[in-house]
Amino acid sequence: MTEVDDERDFYRTFSEEIRRARRSLWLWAPWVAGRLRTLLPDLRAAADRGVRISVFIRDDTDQLQKRQDNQALISNLRAVAQSVVPMNVMHQKIAVVDEQTVMLGSLNVLSQSWTREIMLTMRGAHFARKLLEHEHAETFAAPPKCGRCKGGEIEIRRRKNGTWFWRCYATACKTTPNGGINAWTQNIRMQPGR
């Protein structure tokens, strides 16, 4: 462990890590809000350096996430990240940089504003890879196109039995001819051993 940050110190550490990133940046950040504005320049610079940025956020069934101003910020995030994937009721707060630095704790990196939080920064490629594997990062960062509308508005959900699946959230696609709602879904094929 190299750092223990609170909500006041974390963004200094986080910005340094983004600036040092050379290959990849993985983020699990449930909510996207005004905090993103201060991070966009560093994220854009990282993307310009060739850093692959993959972000998992809450889907827009969440009351905060579906606000129009937050949806505009999500569009800004999509403009710099290679992958922004909504996930139903996700709550993880994780950053993994270059598959060797992990930032983990209670602080939501894309929306934090005033609550008391803690984030730990730990270095170690084995730990980082194990965490990415646990979170199914590679699989979840590559959603398919919708099998019905062929669109890219795909989110991740999990059934009560534990099965993960893709779901199209395009409004036009979810509505059936009789007016019912029946979104396209497809079970997610997990990598062997996961």
Describe it for me?
- Helix content is 29%, strand content 25%.
- The chain has 194 residues and is an alpha+beta fold.
- The protein has a seven-stranded mixed sheet with strand order 1-7-6-5-2-3-4, sandwiched between helices. The chain has a three-stranded antiparallel sheet with strand order 8-9-10, with no helix packed on it.
- The mean pLDDT is 93.
- Helix 1 (10-20) packs parallel to helix 2 (35-48) and helix 2 (35-48) runs parallel beside helix 3 (68-80).
- Strand 2, helix 2 (35-48) and strand 3 form a beta-alpha-beta unit.
- It has helices at residues 10-20, 35-48, 68-80, 125-134, 137-140, 171-174; strands at residues 3-6, 24-28, 52-58, 83-87, 94-97, 101-105, 118-123, 154-158, 164-168, 185-187.
- It has two domains: 3-140, Endonuclease Chain A (Endonuclease, Chain A), CATH 3.30.870.10; 143-194, no CATH class.
CATH level-1 class of the largest domain = Alpha Beta
Count of discrete alpha- or pi-helical segments spanning 4 or more residues: 6
Relative strand content: 25-35%
The order of strands across the largest sheet is 1-7-6-5-2-3-4
Counting DSSP E segments of at least 2 residues, the number of strands comes to 10
The CATH topology of the largest domain is given as Endonuclease, Chain A
Characterize the main sheet. 7 strands, mixed
CA-based gyration radius: 17 Å
Average per-residue pLDDT, rounded, comes to 93
* Total domain modules: 2
The sequence of SSEs as H and E is EHEHEHEEEEHHEEHE
Kindly, what is the distance between the CA atoms of the first and last residues, rounded to a whole number of angstroms? 26 Å
Q: Which CATH architecture of the largest domain?
A: 2-Layer Sandwich
CATH superfamily of the largest domain: Endonuclease Chain A
Structural class: alpha+beta
Which term fits the overall shape? globular
Spans of at least 5 consecutive residues whose pLDDT stays below 50 are none
The share of residues in helices is: 25-40%
